[in-house]
# Entry
Amino acid sequence: MEYVCKIGTTSGEVKSQTERAESESELRQRLAAEGYYIFSVQPKDWLKAKLQVRKRRRVRPDDFVIFNQQFLTLSKSGLPLQKSLELLARQARRGELRVALETVSGEVRSGALLSDAFAAAGSFPKIYSATVRAGERSGSLDKVLAQYLSYQRITRNFRKKILAALIYPGFLMFFLAVLVTFVVSFIVPRFAELYKDLDVTLPQLTQVTISVAMSLRHMALEIFVALIAAAFGVRTAWQSHRVRVLWDRVRFGLPLVGSLMLKFSVGEFSRSLGTLLQGGLPVVEALETTRASITSPLIAKAIESAREQVKGGHSLSSALRASGFFPPTALDMIEVGETTGALPAMLESVAEFYEEDVNIDLAALVALVDPVMIAAVAVVVAFVLVAFYLPLFSLAAQVH
# Structure
């Protein structure tokens, strides 16, 4: 069977080539024995590759944190690697993690390296496989696992803080949507029937409101179908790299929110790269792994350009500066880290700086959004009261 391999040489060159082998594990062992760094091995048949990817389910982040803590403890205790994996697979509470660990255990049993086994499972982050590979080469797997566990906890806590900050604004938006739906589907029809029975001359504001609301009510099915079609269209368009890049340009250019998202992406990049460098990976390989694990396509493109320049002999700070995408503060800190020979530690400082900055900006943004959303709810309620009770006031005045 033919496989498309993305591999790196000891000189830092990354290339893709087609190889023939009986199985993926056999090919990985052969390439590793030849001294290559293995980034990915995929079947050449496109359909089969897609089906294999669909069968793989990502391990939940919280389960992955618990697994790494247990794996590190067992590794420090001196328990054999194969025994540790089998034990953790039996103890796994969720099926995705259990299946993934059984795959890893099987690969290790057949002679594959631990890093290659995690990569072959397809359920773990690429940065994790690269970190384990660095620990295997340096002979300090326990130290590297501890560093990754620390990285994992920090990033998870940071993301949870962001989600927690967005819960209340999200609840207000949901409440506003429910309120508008309730007014259109229940309040407006009742008042429309009432005024029709009373044969009251309605003010212009009430007439327009009833007309618009009744139109929306009659078109409810069409609106629902349109929303489903729009969601499907967005999901399909999102598969295009060009669309994701376009969206990245739009979101980074948004006022207030754009700078916050850029800081988040820079912090994510710095944290990932710093962890890989602390594990002992060369800069070029660490940049390639970071590029593959980053969520922003624009940042990934800038990292790829920087990797090519670093491979050509340029410093990391100058290569990133040439992209014109990274903030000056981050570039200056990285340059100082390179000059003093403490780049991994400085990258962690950059990540901490921008993560704290994101927390402050997010708190300020939420503090601004909350009163705006509350005011929007108040405006909707006030508009309904004025539009539908104004005719009643006019009718009461006529009676008197």
